[in-house]
Amino acid sequence: MRISKIIKGILLMFIVSMIGCSTDSVDEIEKIQEVDASIKSAVKFNFTTSLKAENEVHPVDSKATGQAIVKISKDETYLEYKLIVANIEDVIMAHFHMAPAGTNGNVVVWLFGKDGPAPAGDFNGVLAEGVITEDDVVGPLDGDFQALLDAIRAGNIYVNVHTTEFPGGELRGQL
């Protein structure tokens, strides 16, 4: 009888120690999840830039200004953008280009003007807004949405607004 109590005690201690081990494992998993969550919260999802003529690689003489706002979805499968301009005339197109500040780069996303001629004349207000997915990514990043996000976060994407007077770009801003 005494032996069975000893065996029960040993079994009980074994079970408690096993539960303790699994609790440690659960704690470790929770710590890993917390670290992962903190890393994700440190990742930037919102970007804005002021669009100015002086930001062009070869600055132009223009009183036009603007702003671009970009919001990446939490699941990183799309982004939303809004392109606002003021005091600008005869906009023909606008894009995301890939290059660091101070250099020109290839078009990687069309924002405005791809679907035909733009309205002529003075413009003030929201020039374009919409959603960008992998299907919208062109040029050197063709279809690679994650590469676009990486380039935005690295500061290697700029917004460029082109006009008939300045077809190479009248307004530019680095995201």
Description:
The chain is α+β, with helices and mostly antiparallel strands and 175 residues long. It has two domains: 1-42; 46-174, Immunoglobulin-like (Sandwich), CATH 2.60.40. It has two helices and eight strands. The protein has helices at 2-42, 145-153; strands spanning 46-52, 65-72, 79-89, 91-98, 106-112, 122-132, 157-163, 171-174. The strands form two sheets. A four-stranded antiparallel sheet has the order 1-2-3-6, with no helix packed on it. The longest helix has 41 residues, at 2-42. The mean pLDDT is 86.
What's the structural domain tally?
2
The percent range for strand residues is: 35-45%
Most strands sheet: 4 strands, antiparallel
Q: How many individual helices?
A: 2
CATH-defined fold name of the largest domain: Immunoglobulin-like
CATH architecture of the largest domain: Sandwich
Helix content: 25-40%
What is the chain-wise order of helices and strands? HEEEEEEHEE
**CATH first level of the largest domain: which class?**
Mainly Beta
Mean pLDDT: 86
Question: Oligomer, anyone?
Answer: single chain
